[in-house]
Amino acid sequence: MTEANAPRPDKVAKVEEITAKLKEASAVFVTEYRGMSVSQMADLRTPLRAVGAEHKVYKNTLAKLAATNAGRDGLNDHLTGPTALTFAADDLVGAAKALIDAAKANPLLVIKGGMLGDTPMSADDVKALASLPSRDELLANFAGALQAPLVKTARLLKALPNKFAFGLSALIEKQEAEA
User: Are 151 and 125 found together in one domain?
Assistant: First the structure.
């Protein structure tokens, strides 16, 4: 490759940055933001940050190179027009819900799809993911399921001495009445 055809160092660095983010993220969602203002984009980023997700705009050519480098070629079909990538590491459902809620509030935001791990997702798949209970809800349900048998056992153990005491008291009263 001649020096004139070599990619610029800033472009190489940007591709490496996107590649690293794609490899770190458990899920990546692709949205179209055509017609959205800067303040609307900022309003979108706030709920995404709250769930540990990051929403970034990159050039499609650089994002496609990074997707190929990261082994996430399934994103390339969605990378047309003005697109942004949302990287979610932990709370995938929360990130999907935040995007769906933002798309309902602002029809200019269009969810195109994404990838969950190595599996490509359509826009309907992202909506289905958003309909699942959040991580916090699942943890609360799990804690409740673990707690229920313990509560029953504690009540049973508490009832045994009480019933024994009542039975003993009744026996003493019966013997006193007979005497």
Answer: no
Rounded CA-CA distance 80/67 in Å is 13
Q: 3-state secondary structure string, the chain?
A: CCCCCCCCHHHHHHHHHHHHHHHHCCEEEEEECCCCCHHHHHHHHHHHHHCCEEEEECCHHHHHHHHHHHCCHHHHHHCCCCEEEEEECCCHHHHHHHHHHHHHHCCCCEEEEEEECCEEEEHHHHHHHHCCCCHHHHHHHHHHHHHHHHHHHHHHHHHHHHHHHHHHHHHHHHHHHHC
Give residue-wise pLDDT tens across range 3-38.
555 568 788 888 899 999 999 988 999 999 888 888
Q: What is the pLDDT of residues 39-95, one digit of tens each?
A: 888 888 889 998 889 999 999 999 999 998 888 888 888 888 888 999 998 888 889
**Model pLDDT, residue 96:** 92
Give the number of domains in the chain: 2
Q: What is the mean pLDDT of the chain?
A: 85
pLDDT of residue 3: 53
**Domain assignment of residue 155, yes or no:** yes
Cα 150 to Cα 136, 145, 170, distances in angstroms: 21, 9, 30
